[in-house]
């Protein structure tokens, strides 16, 4: 039978860092956890908004280029 190595058991800490200070989420109050969830949700929404803006800018450029091409072929 082959021997397998197991990793040492460690407590999984749910740590976050704010202004170079580590905080354990499990030690936060319910209100602090709600505030943290708002911040995380807003970060996701900002990322999504940036992604959408990038798509819109590329789309606008593509349509503008198609318009310029169309106008130059009519001459």
Description:
The chain is mostly helical. The protein is 60% helix and 11% strand. It has a two-stranded antiparallel sheet with strand order 1-2. The chain is elongated, with a radius of gyration of 25 Å. It starts with 14 loop residues before the first strand and ends with a helix. The model has no long low-confidence stretch (mean pLDDT 90).
Question: TL;DR of this structure?
Answer:
The chain has 75 residues and is mainly α.
Write the layout of secondary structure elements.
Elements: E1 15-18, E2 21-24, H1 30-74
Antiparallel strand pairs: 1-2
List key phrases describing it.
two-stranded antiparallel ribbon; elongated; mainly alpha; 2 strands; 60% helix; single chain
Uncertain segments of ≥5 residues (pLDDT<50)?
none
Number of strands: 2
Oligomer: single chain
Secondary structure class reads mainly alpha
Give the overall pLDDT as a whole number. Answer: 90
Helical proportion, percent range:
55-70%
Question: How large a portion of the residues is in β-strands, by DSSP E?
Answer: 5-15%
| DSSP helical segment count | 1
Rounded to an integer, what's the Rg over CA atoms?
Answer: 25 Å
What is the terminal separation in angstroms?
A: 82 Å
Largest sheet entry:
2 strands, antiparallel
Strand order of the largest sheet: 1-2
- Which outline best applies? elongated
The ordered string of helix (H) and strand (E) elements is EEH
């Amino acid at each position: 039978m082959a021997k397998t190595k197991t990793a040492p058991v460690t407590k999984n800490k749910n740590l976050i860092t704010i202004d170079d200070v580590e905080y354990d989420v499990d030690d936060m109050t319910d209100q602090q956890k709600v505030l943290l969830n708002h911040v995380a949700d807003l970060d996701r929404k900002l990322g999504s908004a940036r992604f959408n803006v990038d798509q819109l800018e590329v789309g606008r450029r593509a349509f503008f280029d198609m318009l310029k091409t169309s106008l130059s072929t009519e001459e």
